[in-house]
Amino acid sequence: MTSTVNPDLESxxxxxxxxxxxxxxxxxxxxxxxxxxxxxxxxxDSNGDGIGDLKGIxxxxxxxxxxxxxxxxxxxxxxxxxxxxxxxxxxxxxxDPKLGTLADFDxxxxxxxxxxxKLIADIVPNHTSNLHEWFQEALASPKGSAARDRYIFRxxxxxxxxxxxxxxxxxxxxxxxxxxxxxxxxxHIFAREQPDLNWDNRxxxxxxxKTLRFWSDRGVDGFRVDVAHAxxxxxxxxLPSKAELGPQGGNNLGExxxxxxxxxxxxxxxxxxxxxxxxxxxxxxxxAWVHADRRARYASPDGLGQAFNFDLLKADWNPRxxxxxxxxxxxxxxxxxxxxxxxxxxxxxxxxxxxxxxPPVGADSDDGQDGGAWLMSGGTxxxxxxxxxxxxxxxxxxxMLALPGSAYLYQGEELGxxxxxxxxxxxxxxxxFFRNRGVDVGRDGCRVPLPWTRDGExxxxxxxxxxxxxxxxxxxxxxEVQEADPSSHLGFYxxxxxLRRELQGExxxxxxxxxxxxxxxxxxxxxxxxxTNFGPATVDLPAGTVLLSSSPxxxxxxxxxxxxxxx
Length: 567
Ligand code: GLC
Ligand code: CA
Fold this sequence. Notes:
Shape: globular
Low-confidence stretches: 7-22, 362-380
Strand order of the largest sheet: 10-9-8-4-3-2-12-11
Bound molecules: alpha-D-glucopyranose, calcium ion
Radius of gyration: 23 Å
Number of strands: 17
Mean pLDDT: 91
């Protein structure tokens, strides 16, 4: 774990250029924010029950502040039986008692705001949990009832209706339909505990508007919208078969029965009117695994305003791919009026320190839909080159932090944490694992509770164990260990985030051509240069003062797998 920071050069940065030290009222705060994703159950546990909680988050705000992020995005913290890590919500307007209370929430958000950190809440509109009172009511109500109309119930096929209404698969494996006691079937794109809502139902729409206001009134600054591209559906019968639909998602341009239909934007236009009732307007970012050409619709200022772009996360270690992706996304963001988003890790994919330490997976699929599933398959530990993975992860993270737009970071990436591969079957939690036995290990490996101390009970995560087992090597990556070493992965992230705040100006960007095709070099306003060497050979750096490099320079030259910033 080594990076270099030039300690004498703090003053080389023009402090007034910190134009982005946005006030809490700045309506554009999100455009170039660094956003740190917290998976609440695995961040910090305050009461020793092995599950991270809101008080745990509040206790770690000094850490978030020292890391230097602008906002925190909380994965779902609502009451949930955890059939899908909290993305199965029982009640949208409460806090899971396992995680705390609404009072704890208020305390947490006040403390975050005091630290000038914004809060983005995850909202899950495509499906409720099967324990949601609406679904329980639907099950208890007859076929054709108003209670059933909030969901997607259909009769089955065949003389006795015993075959599902279509042969569609759920994203987590297995059929997308589940039969109920009275013989009807309900649709679930994800786990069977996640029945899909019917977004043609006005009551469903109104209830979400109420939820958006509920959290906005409590001070939530923005929303991350789960599976934003699946809400509206065209389920006109007869339903097409899997074969007629083509590969999951396909290269679909709005004609699929449930992925990325145009009508979904009517829903988000309504949400926008609610967001704009607040000062500053609440923000939103769509999780939409859609064809790149259709992403801008989600990012429209009349809709959610921003959309995740997972292109870099799916890219190979290849400067040409990086360059194309960056160029394309910046053009796209400009055209939609949004700013770009960048992300290498989240709670659904293999951690990027591990991804870059594994041999290439092979051809990437470009259909914009199943990339998530592709990445969810865990890498296998034996082939992992940890040091290489961490080195490359630092290099690309530094590159990302120099790009215009918002950078989304996932808890633990600042520690260079790796995916945990060795989780026993009885400890696994992710439905992906159970529904695809032997094929897909699921996403538990990136959700293991964070190590805060080198030793001790659950490495300082709490005092009563950890809900997913932590491997012995976690201690080496602990916050405590890295805080003592400015050249650590954490020390590097802190410095990079600090410099980003100081250097970040207008969203302009320009490529600078380099003699080596392995090198990506761009400039930002104020003479800020970012240079990344993807190749093996050490190369010359342009003239200027080096502020930070992701790995040590060699006689002032840039070695392979390294990024440097210069002014
Ligand atoms: C999103 C979430 C993922 C969840 C799924 C279903 O993709 O990021 O964690 O399993 O939606 O809600
Ligand atoms: Ca707890």
